[in-house]
Amino acid sequence: MSYDIDFFYTLKGIDTLMEGLLVTLQLSLTSIVIGVSLGFVVALMVMSPSKLLSWPATSFIEIFRCTPALIQIVWIFYCVPMLFNVFLDPIVMGVLALSLNLIAFNAEAYRAAIQAIPKAQLDASVALGLNKIQTNVYVVLPQAIRLALPVLVTNGISIFQQSALVAIVAIEDLMYMGKMLSTETYRPIETFTVVALIYFAIALPAMYISSQLEKRLKVA
Amino acid sequence: MQTTTQDTPAFIKVRGLKKSYSETIQVLKGLDLDMYPGDRIVVIGPSGGGKSTLLRCVMGLENIDEGTIEVDGKPYIKGQGRTEKNAIDHTIQKQVGMVFQHYTLFPHLTILQNLTLAPVKSRGIPRSQAEEKARGLLKRLGLADKADAQPSQLSGGQKQRVAIARALMLSPELMLFDEVTSALDPELVNEVESVMMQLADQHMPMMIVTHDMWFAKNIATRVVFCAGGVVVEDGTPEQIFSNPKEQRTRDFLEKILHTENAA
Ligand SMILES: Nc1ncnc2c1ncn2[C@@H]1O[C@H](COP(=O)(O)OP(=O)(O)O)[C@@H](O)[C@H]1O
Ligand SMILES: [Mg+2]
After folding, report:
1. Which InterPro entries does the UniProt record give (chain A) (predicted)?
2. Does the residue A186 lie in any domain?
3. Which end of chain A is less congested by CB atoms within 10 angstroms, N or C?
4. Which of A131, A138, A143 lies nearest to residue B117, judging by beta carbons?
5. Ligand 1, from B17, B20, B21: best to mutate by most atoms within 8 Å of Cβ?
6. Is the CB of B27 under 6 A from ligand 1?
7. What is the total count of domains within chain A?
8. Domains plus CATH for chain B?
């Protein structure tokens, strides 16, 4: 191998990478907040007896779960402006694409969690004179959040990793900056290794926390 | 078929109760039943005969197709067709309590919180007052030390006793028990049945579905044999168990007593 490993230029460009990381975190965290809240709403829509609510919600979930995230990003980036004649800030487009994907996956997690609550508990709630809202707030919701939490965290970590895909539409995230730096310095091995390590350094502790959380919640 | 004198007004009066779960699954086919003050009714009958459905209808958990249920002479539930919502008096519904075959304690709440949730959130009783009542009830049922436990830490028998206590928190005028010991290990059945006997001693009106014929004989003032979605026969425990009039009742008792002896 005639390639001498040398991290000098990559480490000199670490500022550039940190700028990219900031964008990556911004994209992921915003999408996570949106995904966790709207995911619950979409789950409730899916489970609604009204077809008018459940049908669009179900179609939305299936589309986003059954197509590659890369296609979703590219499609939203190129087709939405052409179809609707709106031109948004690239970061906003990125958040839109990632959020929609995460909402679909989180809605599924919430739905499974709500369905895992035995129906008999709902009968008991009626027998105890709790109305629908009281039953949802005091019986269903606390259990659904507990049951769904490990999956929500896993989905959040996964969207953080998937966010690297937005580099393809020239959003200046960690991946994009890495690509740029590697071209500038002719140091692809060093640069992409450092970029990978940065993703790893954030995802690993998050993964660890999530598995601890899961253990804790199982006991309770 | 009526065993109690007609001049006392019925406490619960079920008339022409029809319930189907779909166009093809009709379960209750015009059921009539009267429960008089002081009655403890045990409902027996073959599996699938509609016993659970009857209790669920009285609890207001099912939308009935046709018929009426009255409590103390006042309309409680009225069927208005299979696809139409029942007219239901929720004030009367709140006077009925029910305990189920499957454990229904809320797993994310402690025992004490299970008992106080409905009184505090739905009846507006101050928390301190509800907790005091809850501790008193738990003590009476031999569960004083379980107040702060999680449901998962309890045995099946303890869970069902807590479920009974949870229903009693709301001071019901009628208690419904649907096979509350069926899911229990045999050695745990007794602790639950003796709590129900305690309630009987305090003259709590009850409607009980059970397969335990020995318990039925002991707790019932009246036994109702329900099959095919109607009341086939209805009488005192002595009458039903020693001298059933209907062939279907006889066949059922023969079969169940035979399997019990064999077991
Ligand atoms: N939710 C339901 N949906 C459809 N069929 C039901 C439902 N609940 C009960 N059934 C049917 O109704 C019949 C009577 O059931 P049930 O009232 O539980 O009888 P029992 O308690 O006497 O065994 C059974 O055939 C049962 O399969
Ligand atoms: Mg049953």
Report:
1. AA_ABC_transptr_permease_3TM, ArtM/GltK/GlnP/TcyL/YhdX-like, MetI-like, MetI-like_sf
2. no
3. N
4. A138
5. B21
6. yes
7. 1
8. 12-101+176-262 (3.40.50.300)
Considering only CA atoms, which of A139, A153, A164, A146 is closest in space to residue A73? A164
Kindly report the protein residue whose alpha carbon is nearest to atom 25 of ligand 1. Answer: B48
Residue A125 lies in a domain: yes
Say yes or no to pLDDT of B45 above 80: yes
How many Cβ atoms sit within 10 Å of the Cβ of residue A40?
23
This prediction has a pTM of 0.81
Question: Between vectors from CA B108 to CA B105 and to CA B111, what angle results, nearest 5°?
Answer: 50
Q: A71 Cβ partners below 8 Å, 6+ apart?
A: none
Task: Check residues A25 and B259 and name the one with the higher pLDDT.
Answer: A25
Q: Tell me, using a 6 A CB cutoff, whether residue B20 lines ligand 1.
A: no
Q: Does residue B173 contact residue B127 with C-beta atoms inside 8 Å?
A: no
Contact call for B170 and A121, based on CB within 8 A: no
Closest CA–CA distance from residue B17 to any residue of chain A (Å): 20
Digits of tens for pLDDT over chain A (220 positions)? 678 888 888 888 899 999 999 999 999 999 999 999 899 899 989 998 899 999 999 999 999 999 999 999 999 999 989 999 988 899 999 999 999 999 999 999 999 999 999 999 999 999 999 998 899 889 998 898 888 988 999 999 999 999 999 999 989 999 999 999 999 998 899 999 999 999 999 999 999 988 888 788 765 5
Calculate how close chain A gets to B222, using CA atoms only, in Å. 24
Residue A18, domain extent: 14-173+199-219
- CA–CA gap between residue B125 and residue A150 (Å, rounded): 36
Sequence-distant (6+) residues with CB within 8 A of A74 are A168, A169
Residue range A89-138, pLDDT digits in tens: 999 999 999 999 999 999 999 999 999 999 999 999 999 999 988 998 89
List all residues of chain A from 131 to 170 with a beta carbon under 8 Å from chain B: 131, 134, 138-139, 142-143, 146
**CB spacing of A128 vs B61 below 8 angstroms:** no
In the structure, ligand 2 is a single-atom ion and the residues with CB under 5 Å from it are B 52
pLDDT surpassing 90 at residue B196 = yes
B11 touches chain A (CB under 8 A): no
CATH number at residue A72: 1.10.3720.10
Domain assignment present for residue A182? The answer is: no
